[in-house]
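call fold(seq) -> C-alpha cells
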Amino acid sequence: MGARVRLLVWTLPVMLAVFARFSFAALAPPSVNWDEAAFGYNAYSLLLTGRDEYGYKLPLVFRSFDEYKPPLYVYLSVPFIKFMGLNEASARMVSKISGVLNVMLIMIIASLLTRNRKVGLASGFLAAIEPWTLIFSRPAFEASLSLTLFLICVIWLIKAQRQSKYYYWAAVTAGINTMA
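ret:
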C-alpha cells in the first residue's frame, strides 16, 4: 500500500470524528446548559476584563452557581470566543476539538500497545462513533478535555518504557490534567 493511500486510510477515522462532532451542532444538544453558559461567559469576561464573573483576576478556580469549575477549559475557550464571538459554538469548541484529538490519541495508543497499525485503525473508527465519547464531546464538558490530557499522559507512559525522560512529560501532563 502506498504512502498516500495509507495516509488517506488513517485520516478516515479522524474525518468521521470531525463529522460526528461538528455536524448538526445546533440540533444535538438543542440548547446551551448552565455549565456551558458559565464556561462561555467566564471566558468572555476574561477576554474583556481579565477577571471572572465575580471580579477575581485570573482565577485558578471559577465559581459559578455556587459550585467551582476547573480553569483550563475556560482559559482555552478565550481565543475561540475572541474570534467567533460569544455563542454556543465558541463555548463548545474546546470540547469538540478535544473529542477529535481523542480519536487520534486512541489510534496512537492502540498502535503502540499492539504494534499493529490495523488495530490502531480499528480503534480509531470505534472511538469516532463510540456513544460516550461522542456525547461528552459535543456540548461544553470538561470531561472531553480531561480525557485528552489523560490519553496524552498514557502515551508518555508507554514511551517511558523505552526512554525514562518521558516520565517527566507524563507527570507534567498529569499535573495539567488536574486543572481540567
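Strands lie at 62-64, 67-69.
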